[in-house]
Amino acid sequence: MTSILVLNGPNLNMLGSREPEIYGTDSLTAIERICRERGDHLGVDIEFLHSNHEGTLIDAIHNASTRTDAIVINAAAYTHTSVALMDALKSVPQPVVEIHLTNIHRRESFRSRSYISLAADGVILGFGAKGYALAIEAALGLAKPR
Ligand code: DQA
After folding, report:
1. What is the per-residue pLDDT across 82-100, written as a single tens digit (0 to 9) for each?
2. Banded pLDDT at 66 (limits 50, 70, 90)
């Protein structure tokens, strides 16, 4: 069965109560449900992970290289800072779909720079929680059988 790793970075565990006027009111649990429903619909296994720690996200990317066919990642604030996450994504053969709830290009200028984009095959942004379902479809389209 095709397997997609959905990775979520810092502060996304606070979704629902975190700046709802920017990020909406869906919690990360609701987003996980959206991912699993789309996975069931498409017949793919979803591994859903959140961490506030850069190293944990990097370990998950490394471990994905043997278990996963594609990676969907919302690196949150690490998007704009982490050369290490970009390098980790480049170190594995899996296709990468970058996702953001918000349109990062319409916000503060520092959010327009994404290190993750330099390792991503495609980017989905600005569609809120529903974007995760789109990202899973895109990732399935790119997935290479192991
Ligand atoms: C985000 C955008 C980032 O700039 C921000 O730091 C986040 C969430 C998004 O999904 O829109 O934490 O990745």
Report:
1. 999 999 999 999 999 999 9
2. confident
- Environment class of residue 4 by beta-carbon count within 10 Å: exposed (0-12), middle (13-18) or buried (19+)? buried
Q: Of 140, 141, 142, which is closest to residue 3 (Cα–Cα)?
A: 140
What's the whole-number mean pLDDT along residues 35-57?
98
Whether ligand 1 lies within 6 angstroms of the CB of 114 is answered as no
Closest CA to 45 of 146, 144, 136: 136
Interval between CA 100 and ligand 1 midpoint (Å):
6
Pocket test for ligand 1, best of 102, 106, 109, 115 (most atoms within 8 A of CB): 102
Predicted TM-score (pTM) of this structure: 0.97
> Is residue 115 flagged as an active site residue?
no
Q: Which of 50, 53, 78, 100 is catalytic?
A: 100
Ligand 1 pocket residue status of 77, Cβ below 6 Å: yes
